[in-house]
Amino acid sequence: MTARLDATDARLILALSEDPRCTVLALAQQLGLARNTVQARLARLESAGVLDPFERRVRPEALGYRLGAYITVQVVQRGLDDVAASLAAIPEVLEVVGLSGVMDLLVQVVAVDADDLWRITEQLLAVPGVQRTDTNLALRRFVDHRMTPLLERAASTARPGD
């Protein structure tokens, strides 16, 4: 479980989001905080796992993976951990999320083209414990992964649902 952010943490992350190359000193000046306070908070946020890895900012398209898909996977009961570990070994698997309902996992994958997606799907089906898959192509991204609206709410110290 990651640490809970306070309004100052949220303001700090918003400032970094606006200018990821901003120095600690510039952040301190912008937020009206001591440089040591900013440095300590950033260190705490990183060590607590609040901040995603930098790689999350890289678009798969920049690496030649122009096709994205979401694959739901039905798994043999009690096989989720083993299946998830096997899926993590496939480089084109970007994320695996456990679901409630008929399907057990939601797997986000990227592929170079349709033939490559076929190959990746075959790899998923070959994983011991995978019973069934259903593939849905990602045609267009309407809303990017975002945290800014929630950070803005936290920075204003409003509570969720207010």
UniProtKB/TrEMBL annotation:
GO BP, one annotated term: response to amino acid
PANTHER family reported in the protein's UniProt record: LEUCINE-RESPONSIVE REGULATORY PROTEIN (PTHR30154), TRANSCRIPTIONAL REGULATOR AZLB (PTHR30154:SF34)
Keyword match DNA-binding: yes
InterPro entries: ArsR-like_HTH, AsnC-type_HTH_dom, Dimeric_a/b-barrel, Tscrpt_reg_AsnC-like, Tscrpt_reg_AsnC/Lrp_C, WH-like_DNA-bd_sf, WH_DNA-bd_sf
Key words, A-Z: DNA-binding, Transcription, Transcription regulation
Domain HTH asnC-type span(s) in chain numbering: 5-66
Alphabetized Pfam families for the sequence: AsnC_trans_reg, HTH_24
Protein name, per record: Lrp/AsnC family transcriptional regulator
SUPFAM superfamilies recorded: Dimeric alpha+beta barrel, Winged helix' DNA-binding domain
Keyword Transcription regulation: yes
Domain of life: Bacteria
Organism, scientific name: Modestobacter muralis
SMART domains: HTH_ASNC (SM00344)
